[in-house]
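Request: When convenient, would you put together a sequence paired with its structure tokens?
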Amino acid sequence: MSETIESDMGANVWKILVAPGDRVEEEATLMILEAMKMEIPILAEDAGTVVAVHVAEGDSVASGQPLVEFETA
């Protein structure tokens, strides 16, 4: 089953920690967003394999924007 994680708020993509094909465990940190000098980790809700990363480091993202898509285990 495919799952897409979206941004909860407007922020900047500070660091991406995964790439397509990476296997992730539940609650693994996928990327870190930065908003108002706060670091916001984006976590995997389930274990699975990363299918696509829809943003790049340095991008500005809006609330509801897709960040990472992955297939759940």
The two ends are 8 Å apart (CA to CA). Strands lie at 2-6, 11-16, 23-24, 29-35, 38-43, 48-53, 60-61, 66-72. The mean pLDDT is 96. The first strand starts at residue 2 and ends at 6.
